[in-house]
Design a protein that fits this description.
single chain, alpha+beta, Rieske Iron-sulfur Protein, 2 domains, four-stranded antiparallel β-sheet, elongated, binds FE2/S2 (inorganic) cluster, transmembrane helix
């Protein structure tokens, strides 16, 4: 009697044509398959999906080589701050330099003081001459200088991936 009763819950198709019965075993089986397919789906989305396994793991940063415009755009004997590029373009007569704004102490952005004609760091007081050489405060070395060249169209091009010696300048 007991066996017959149990069979009824599993094979309800014979009795009433219902293809599925809500027995505990069926629900657990369904939950198991559901978990299985969810796991497979999660793995596949990692492998094939947007930014998945095949997507290159790179940072998209602006090029370190960029044009800053024609030489005449910079007044003679001036220091122009290009904040977005983190450089100063220093023009003395017809010579140009690109100097980093990054302080050599702990990396704050230095500022140019027109009154004093020097670079000053607002964080711990380092000071640099107009040519980038440090003379006061905790900064251990001069500001970085970057390569400046003239391209075919006559524009100044700075490459912040190429550091150059302090005395390097582009004369146009
Ligand atoms: S970060 Fe410039 S002096 Fe400390």
């Amino acid at each position: 009697m007991e066996i017959k009763e149990r069979n009824r819950s599993y094979t309800s198709e014979k009795e009433g044509g219902i293809w599925f019965s809500f027995s505990r075993r069926n629900i657990l089986t369904l939950a198991g398959w559901g978990l299985f397919f969810a796991t497979i789906g999660a793995y596949l989305s990692q492998i094939l999906g947007y930014k998945g396994f095949f997507y290159p793991k790179v940072l998209f940063e602006p090029s370190p080589r960029f044009s800053v415009g024609e030489p005449k755009a910079f007044p003679e004997n001036s220091v122009t701050t290009l904040k977005s590029r983190k450089i100063f373009v220093v023009r003395d007569g017809n010579s140009f330099k690109a100097i980093s704004v990054v302080c050599q102490h702990l990396g704050c952005a230095v500022e140019f003081s027109r009154e004093k004609n020097i670079f000053e760091c607002p964080c711990h007081g380092s000071k640099y001459y107009r040519n980038g050489v440090n003379f006061a405060g905790p900064a251990p070395r001069p500001l970085d200088h970057f390569e400046v060249v003239l391209d075919d169209s006559g524009k100044l091009v700075v490459d912040t991936s190429k550091k150059v010696p302090l005395e390097t300048e582009l004369v146009v």
